[in-house]
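A-factor biosynthesis repeat-containing protein
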Amino acid sequence: MILVETLRQLGLYIPLRFYAVPAACHAVITDLYFRLAPGNEPPARAGATEVTCRARVSALRRDPDHRVTGLRLDATFTVCGLAFGQGGGGVRFLSDAQYRALRGRSARVGMVTPAPEAAYRPPAAELSVNHPQDAVLAVAGGRLLLSPADPLHPFLFDHPTDHVPGMALLEAARQAASYGSRGTLGRPRAGRMKAVRFTELAPPARVLCTQYDSTCVFRVTQGDTRTAYGTLSYS
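Structure:
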C-alpha cells in the first residue's frame, strides 16, 4: 500500500509542479493499478531506502483556456536500478466551483459514519493489519461494512474530506480479501480499482469480495449503488 500511496502523491505533485495545475484545485482519482515483482523488492531494514520513481504522463486533457483538466500517470519504482513495482492511474482536476457543483449538498467535510453498535470488529490477524486501530471493516448482519476503527487514521484519513478516500476503499478491499480467506490472502501482488461514483461518508458502505483461486474481485456499494470495483491478485 505504500507504493500506491506514493503513486497518489506523485499524481498530486507532478501536475502542480510541472503542469501549472493550481493548488486550490480538487484532484479526483478515477482509477488506479499496481503490480509488484516480489523477487526484486528491497528488504525491510532499519532506516530509509532510496527508491527512484520514474513517471510518465499521458492522455493530457485541457480546457478551451489550455488549463490542464486531467491526465494519466504511470510510474516505475526501482532500487539500485532494479524495478520492483509499477503503478498508474487517471486523475481529473476540478476548480472549487466545479467541485461544489458536482458534489452539491454532499460537499460537507466530516467523518465516516460508524457501523451499528451491534457490529463485530474482526481481530487484527483476520484483517492482516498490525494494530486494531488499522482496521477499516466491521461485520453487521452478515455484511462487511466500511467502518474505520480510527476515523482520523494518519495514513487513510490524513486530510479533511467530504467522501471516503480512494486509499481507504482499496485498504477495505484488501482487508475484505484477508477476512474472507481467514488471513491467508493478506498481501496482494497486483491490483486494480475504478471509482465510478463518490463513496459518501454515510451510510456505511458495504464491501463485497469474492475469491477465484489467487484473485479476489471486489466491489463497494452504498444502498443499491456501486461506487467502486476492482481486483486484487496474490500470485
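Residues 34 and 87 are 4 Å apart (CA to CA).
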